[in-house]
Each structure stands twice: as structure tokens, then as C-alpha cells.
Amino acid sequence: AIADAMQQNNYLQREITAARTVYNSRVTQWNTDIFSWPTKMIVAAQQGYTTRIPFTATAETREVARGKFF
Asked: In the chain, what are the domain boundaries?
């Protein structure tokens, strides 16, 4: 049972890492696109689009998570 839980935990950690990587990649592309001149920048300004902040976790948050997930 513990081995299964650890295996599931490892799987979930990989999935979260993959999702974070995709999200951050798309945020980077979004932030680049809304500053592309001229068309995208003009449309972004007219529509009120703003930059997005990539997901990051502090060292403290990561340490707390490690303590809770084996």
C-alpha cells in the first residue's frame, strides 16, 4: 500500500511538473505576443490584454510539500 502511494505520488509530481512547464511556456508566448508590433500590440491594448505571471513556488513552499508527500 505504501509502495502504491509512493508510486502514485511520483506520478502526480511528474504530471504537475509537466502541466507547470506547459503553462509557463504558454505564458511566455502570450507575453511575447501581446508586445509584437504592430497588430498584436494594438489589439492587446484595445482589448485590455495584460501580461501573465509564470507559476513559481518558493523554496519554503517546495520544502513543505516534500514533507507532506513522502
From this structure: 2-68
